[in-house]
Structure formats: C-alpha cells, structure tokens
Amino acid sequence: MERISLFRVGWIVAALTMTSGCAGSPCGRLAGFQISRHWAEQTCDLQIEPGVRIHINAPSPDRFDRSKPTRIIFYALPNGNTIEWTIGRQQAGGLDWHYFIQHIGAQTRRLREIIQDRNIIVAYLETEQKSWPSWRAKYTDNSERIAGFLSEVRRQIGVPNTEFALSCHSGGGSFIFGYLNGVEQIPDDINRIAFLDANYGFSADAGHGTKLLDWLERSKDHVLVVIAYDDREITLDGKKVVGPDGGTYRATHRMLDAFRSRVELTETSDGDLVRYRGLDGRLDIIVHQNPENRILHTVLVGEMNGFIYAMTSGMTDEGQAAIFGGPPAYTQWIQPD
C-alpha cells in the first residue's frame, strides 16, 4: 500500500505492485495493476481521502499499445450507485437490478472493439455519500480536489501521450461542474466532455457556457455531447419527479440559449429525438421528446447506447460502434459475474 500527499490530505493508493516481465521492450502491462478474470483487463483501485473511491479499467496487456495515444475517460457515477453496479453484470436471480441498467463496462469493451487508433481506459469515480452534489457540499475546496483526482489517475496509469474525456450520469454532472468552477479555462488535454442526462447544474452566470464555448472553439479536437429528455411531467408514485425549475430538459435549454449567443446551431428531428449541432458537429445536443412520458433517465445511458455514442460523436467512429436510440450494441461484452 502506497501513501502520497496532496493538498495536505492523506491519499491512500491500494494497488499491488507486480513484475511486468517485459523489461527492455515495449509492453502493455501497467505497473501496479492487477489482471482481471474478465477479458484479462488491467484494473487498479484507489481509495482517496476524503471519501472517494476510483476504479481504473484498462485493456489487457496484449491489447494496450504504448505507441498509441491513451484516452482516459472519467465517469462520475450517478447518485445512489456503486462502481460495481455501474460496470454491470449479466442478469441473474438474486442480483440487485442496478447491475442491469448502465453497463458502462460492456459499452467500454464495445468502444475498444471499434476504436483502434488509441487505448481506452475508464476511471469510475464514486463518493462515500454515493452523491457528487453531497460530496461537493461537504468540501469547499472541491474544485481543487477534483483537479487532483485527474492528475492522480494519470500518474497512476503512468504512460505518455494521454488525453482526458470527462463524462457523467445523473448527479455525476456535479463532478464536471465542480471542475469547471475551479479553472479559468478548460485545458486542451481534455478533448471530450459528455453529460448523460446530467447537466442539472449548468449556469451561464457561473461562466459554464463561456468556458465550454471557449474550449470548443480553441481546437477541432474538442467535442461536447449533451443527452437529455423531456422530464418535466414524469411522475413516480403519483408525484412529479422534477420541480418547476429543475430537470435536464430545462437545463439543456439554458445551455442552448447560452450557446446560441455565439454559435449557429442546426436543429433536426429524427423520430422522438431533436438534435442540435454546431461547430462542424463537435457541439452535439440530443433531446428525447418523451411523448409517452416515461422515466428515461437511465435508459438513455444503457439501452440507448448513450455512453458509446457520447464517446464517439464527432469522430470518424460516430455511428460505427452503436446507434443512439438502441438496440444495445454491447450485449456480448456484459460481464458474466
């Protein structure tokens, strides 16, 4: 067990140090990572104080090519979920239903099958409260700490030529907005940001729109994806789920208002989906109109291939790994246990 110090708090890294067996030659074995029984993927678990658990999943050593760029996808968990539920498992009697709804592990494996020009690593981020909004409310220096998480994951992976993608679902959006609040401008090594029904906290007054647009306009490699649905009238147990000013539908339209002040957006319709795209497709916003008034909060992410789509939108791989809306394109990659 390794101890490191950052922001004068104790960071505890739980990892097993192992001999790579490939000294003196290029090798895809990552130091400090274990080999999983699932597709021989490389994994590492970090317990970072205060109260954050990070699980890193990398390709198997024989599929990790150090000569290629490495994309590190940070996935901030939805409220109330664990890392294990978010990764997903095949359905079986007695298992919690949360295992069957997101399948970020399987969607990642599908991405690796299609994206051949870079290594794909996912870092899952979970707080002790199972809520990024609650965690941020507890720590006033949360923006600085979040930036530290990105740096520590990169250090732990320990390979050159890395780039970041920030992604989130539900309350995980608070992780990204916490990060945005702490930077004057978004760094260029973040080349993709994706809100999967998670943009509740968007605020033009807080400068979120300006920072996102400045970042998008600075490089043709930068992509922003937002997926949401009309949640204004959905009910649970006879009560409205979303208040009069809340929900991602309203947040998305606040985003659209902010972006339209500087960027021309093209609006198209495809069945129940309304799409808004700008900057040569690198600004990509999808709103499901939800005519049946269903709760689609997680359906957008799992069954509709939302994570795969968000990680390929604006790339040459867009539409090859999965079509947004379904059917699921990742079923063969779901963990058996």
How is this structure best described in words?
The protein is of the alpha/beta class and about 325 residues long. About 25% of the residues lie in helices and about 25% in strands. Strands 1, 2, 3, 4, 5, 6, 7, 8, 9, 10, 13, 14 and 15 form a 13-stranded mixed β-sheet that branches. Helix 2 runs parallel beside helix 8 and helix 4 crosses helix 5. It is globular and about 50 Å long. The model is unreliable at about 1-25 (pLDDT under 50).
Give the SSE layout.
Layout: E1 2-6, E2 9-14, E3 34-35, E4 42-48, E5 52-58, E6 70-76, H1 83-87, H2 104-114, E7 119-127, H3 132-138, H4 142-157, E8 162-169, H5 173-181, E9 190-196, H6 208-218, E10 223-229, E11 235-236, E12 239-240, H7 248-260, E13 266-270, E14 273-278, E15 283-288, H8 306-312
Parallel strand pairs: 6-7, 6-8, 8-9, 9-10, 10-15
Antiparallel strand pairs: 1-2, 2-4, 3-4, 4-5, 5-7, 11-12, 13-14, 14-15
Helix pairs in contact: 2-8, 4-5
Helix content, binned percent: 10-25%
**Overall domain count:** 1
Number of helices: 8
- Sheet with most strands: 13 strands, mixed
The radius of gyration is: 19 Å
Number of strands: 15
Beta-strand residue percentage = 25-35%
Described by the principal axes of the CA atoms, the overall outline is: globular
Concise overview:
With 337 residues, the protein is α/β, with parallel strands linked by helices. It contains 8 helices and 15 strands.
Name the features.
single chain; 337 residues; 15 strands; Rossmann fold; 26% strand; 13-stranded mixed beta sheet; 8 helices; 23% helix; alpha/beta
